[in-house]
């Protein structure tokens, strides 16, 4: 989207303006709209705050960063999110969920090392003038897991994944409306190409990928190591970027250092899958 042009404000806001009616249809077909509205009425300020953090302060900075820094820098820096949720947990919870698992720290460190090797090994290292892009991506990397965790608490057992996503879409709507107005004032109306590509992103990333990710994190929300394992799977996107970017944008193929990083990412995710498995035997289940 950044290469094709168009205001970053439209790239961000259109994704959520598109996905809101899609979630409304999905939840409506399942007869689940009323519980969402009850939850929003019960605590409107909390839903507005944490939905804006989880959606607004996650995606708007990423779209801005794509205008400020190369795509590989954005992709590499974003992976810091796989440890942000884990290290912020003690500030968010006062029970077992606030524990920082030692295995999680080690495996996330391995994956992050692989991320930076794959990116810097394939692109010759960072260049000057990227500080602004890196800074706003770090904001997004913190906001995404915090918003996810806080809205999981708000949803509790009363809302399923699609209902929570609908509630978050409604809660963050004022933020996205303001961003859209800003984009209209600064750059005018979005082009037809931008309208089309943001619709594709809204369906593939905003609806399909986010629903799967939120469902997975909800299932393991009370297990710090398993939650860290789910969040770590986001790093696999770097593998696809490294493999497919040369085909789509005519960049150089990954070098030896980049392939070493890709191997480290794959190893870390596989080890996470085993480390996060529930223990067998014993007298109880987690």
UniProtKB/TrEMBL annotation:
UniProt keywords, alphabetically: Membrane, Transmembrane, Transmembrane helix
Transmembrane segments: 16-33, 45-69, 75-93, 105-122, 128-146, 166-189, 195-215, 227-244, 256-275
Keyword Translocase: no
Protein's UniProt name: Multidrug resistance efflux transporter family protein
Species name: Actinomadura rubrisoli
């Amino acid at each position: 989207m950044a290469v094709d042009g168009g205001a970053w404000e439209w790239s961000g806001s259109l994704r959520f303006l598109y996905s809101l009616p899609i979630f409304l249809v999905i939840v409506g077909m399942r007869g689940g709209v009323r519980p969402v509205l009850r939850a929003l009425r019960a605590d409107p300020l909390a839903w507005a705050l944490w939905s804006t953090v989880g959606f607004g302060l996650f995606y708007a900075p990423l779209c801005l960063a794509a205008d400020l820094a190369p795509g590989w820098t954005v992709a590499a820096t974003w992976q810091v999110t796989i440890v942000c949720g884990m290290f912020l947990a003690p500030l968010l919870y006062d029970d077992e969920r606030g524990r920082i698992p030692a295995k999680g720290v080690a495996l996330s460190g391995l994956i992050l090392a692989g991320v930076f090797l794959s990116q810097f090994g394939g692109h010759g290292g960072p260049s000057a003038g990227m500080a602004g892009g890196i800074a706003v991506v770090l904001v997004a990397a913190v906001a995404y897991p915090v918003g996810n965790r806080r809205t999981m608490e708000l949803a509790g057992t009363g809302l399923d994944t699609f209902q929570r996503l609908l509630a978050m879409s409604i809660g963050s709507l004022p933020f996205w409306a303001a961003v859209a107005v800003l984009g209209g004032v600064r750059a005018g109306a979005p082009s037809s190409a931008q309208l089309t590509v943001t619709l594709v992103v809204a369906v593939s990333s905003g609806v399909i990928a986010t629903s799967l990710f939120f469902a997975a994190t909800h299932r393991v929300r009370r297990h710090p190591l398993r939650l860290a394992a789910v969040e770590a799977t986001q790093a696999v996107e770097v593998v696809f970027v490294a493999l497919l970017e040369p085909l789509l944008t005519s960049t150089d193929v990954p070098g030896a250092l980049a392939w070493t990083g890709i191997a480290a990412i794959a190893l870390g995710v596989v080890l996470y899958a085993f480390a996060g498995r529930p223990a067998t035997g014993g007298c109880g289940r987690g």
